[in-house]
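Slide 14.
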Amino acid sequence: AFNWGALLAWVAHSGSLHPAAVVLYLCGIAWTLFYDTIYAHQDKEDDALIGVKSTARLFADHTPQWLKRFLVLGVVLMSVAVLLAMAGRDGSPFAVLLALLGPWAFGAHMVWQLRQLDTEDHAICLRLFRANRDAGLIPLLFFAGAAFV
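Slide 15: predicted structure.
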């Protein structure tokens, strides 16, 4: 539901749907799978008792490998969205570079989360889940900087 905002905001601002918004929407899905799987590990025992199917239960011990895939997919899709959004616009190459640093900094933050992850420690999972507020803020800062260059 949150990722729908990428499509809605683009259309509300421009009056049409651009491929960059669709790619950003897909990036959001990959990112959601990343942070929501971390969050789901807090409840996996309760989920098993009541029969809830979660990504934590589905991925189990392979969670770090799946999170790496979602991380790479998110960074690649966000980078493609940046390139699509900036294609054909008058702007400095520095602005493009600055905007592309957003997805890479986003990815670096997610790598940090993976290094901290212990799926058996509920407190760590909650802290990492909450750290995704920063994961969303990081590329925004780079995008804002690129808009003013």
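Speaker note: The radius of gyration is 17 Å.
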